[in-house]
Amino acid sequence: MAVFTRDEKEIYEIVKLLNLSLDIKDLGPIQKLLGVNFENYDGKIVLHQRPYIDSLENQYDMNLDKIVEIPLPVDYHLINLV
Q: Domain spans of the chain?
């Protein structure tokens, strides 16, 4: 279970209340959950899967250095390859 709030005091209150009915352990600030990495940059939480993307790049010998504009341009037409 992960608890998110801007107020650190609220986290301790929530953990204390949960501990009354559940046997829980506080593992500290979240770093990774369900394959998603959490990082704190200047007080903002950034979620990413960079290590997973890097592993796919290595596994399939892909070069992901080519940047693609997302979302695609309005006039971009997909070609039906089927």
A: 1-28, 31-64
Residues in the chain: 82
Strand order in the sheet with 44-48: 32-33, 36-41, 44-48
Mind listing the pLDDT tens digit for each residue in 51-61?
A: 998 898 888 87
Q: Which of 78, 26, 34, 77 is nearest to 52 (CA)?
A: 34
pTM recorded for the entire structure:
0.59
Half-sphere exposure of 15 (CA within 13 A, CB side): 16
Q: Which of 46, 47, 45 is nearest to 6 (CA)?
A: 45
* Residues 3, 26: Cα–Cα separation, whole Å: 10
